[in-house]
Amino acid sequence: MIDNPKLTVENPKSMQRIALVIQYIGTDLHGWQRQPHQRTVQEEIETTISTVLQRPVTLHGAGRTDSGVHAAAQVAHFDAEGPVPAHRWKDILNSRLPKDILIRASAKVEPTWHARFSATWRRYRYTLYTDPVPNLFVRPFAWHYYHAPLDESLIQAALTPLIGRFHLAAFHRAGSSRPHSWVDVQVAECQRFGSFIHIEVQASGFLYGMMRLLVGLLVQVGRGERSLENFKDIWVQERREMVKYSAPAHGLCLLRVGYPEFPFPPQVWYDTQPKFVFG
Predict the structure, then answer these.
(1) For residue 77, how many C-alpha atoms fall within 13 Å in the half-sphere facing its CB?
(2) 54: left (phi over 0), alpha (psi -120 to 50) or beta
(3) Percentage of the chain exceeding pLDDT 70
(4) H helical segments located in the chain
(5) Radius of gyration over alpha carbons of the chain, in Å?
(6) ∠ at Cα 208 (205, 213), nearest 5°?
(7) What number of other Cβ atoms are within 10 A of residue 224's Cβ?
(8) Which is catalytic among the residues 3, 28, 66, 91?
(9) How many Å apart are CA 125 and CA 271, to the nearest integer?
């Protein structure tokens, strides 16, 4: 039931496709996808929309994030029939959703637009905190890695050859329904800001577990334990058995998703995960 009698009605019987830009802190969430007896982002938002519309609704996301992974600008869509203008869904949902999920914006899109299939790229950022002194305010969003010095230039040198279209089976966790491991990597970069190292990868799509497996291996390169030649040999030769460590989920964030046509201005979705800077 719609609880605001003053809502303007465009056409109460028309079906609208509504796009959402979503942020969530993944700490207490079991990922994006709905799972039995688990609290997930999809389940929380679907349930809230269904309560408002008083009918079941399916929410389609641009990508699936694992348990504990954050999102600064996840994108999803659903279809709704009724009087609610598209831009009002942001406020309606935010007034009902838990505090670790936020709708940045909502908008009407064409009926053929799809949050997953219309997307041309996704971008993830992994954050490492390298100062030996722990920090409570950093801990939920960065891997506290202080065991050995990390050389960001070595990490960048390892990342650069990944740009292009490659079969990255070495970074593909078991349990995925995806029939292949081809990935078009568009951007792969590593930057240091004081005690923080940010690793960002932009690609057409990501394999199950890809980013965390990649970071786990890159850390070995950054501390000088694994050579650049060995790192490249592992992914070129698809030696999955050599990729043994997955970086912790809490350092990873789905930064943004790209579309040829997107109804939201850049300030809503482009770079909305703050970077830590210590003065």
Answers:
(1) 22
(2) left
(3) 94
(4) 41-53, 89-94, 152-159, 210-222, 228-236, 266-269
(5) 20
(6) 105
(7) 12
(8) 66
(9) 11
Q: Identify residue 229 by its one-letter amino acid code.
A: E
Q: Please state, in angstroms and rounded to a whole number, the distance separating the CA atoms of residues 62 and 75.
A: 5
Report residue 178 as tokens.
């995806």
- Condensed to tens digits (0 to 9), the pLDDT of residues 198-227 reads 999 999 999 999 999 999 999 999 999 999
| Nearest Cα to Cα of residue 195 among 128, 274, 279 | 128
Half-sphere exposure of 138 (CA within 13 A, CB side): 20
d(CA 73, CA 167): 27
Among 253, 243, 247, 72, residue whose Cα is nearest residue 170: 243
Q: Which helix (H) or strand (E) holds 189?
A: strand 182-193
Q: With bands split at pLDDT 50, 70 and 90, how would you rate the model's confidence at 175? A: low
Length of the chain: 279
- Find the Cα–Cα–Cα–Cα dihedral 71, 59, 48, 42, rounded to 10°: -40
C-beta separation of 78 from 58 below 8 A: yes
Specify whether 3 is catalytic.
Answer: no
> Tell me: the pLDDT tens digits for 184-193?
999 999 999 9
Is-contact 270 258, C-beta < 8 A? Answer: no
Q: Are 269 and 104 in contact (CB under 8 A)?
A: yes
Position of tokens 């995960």? Answer: 273
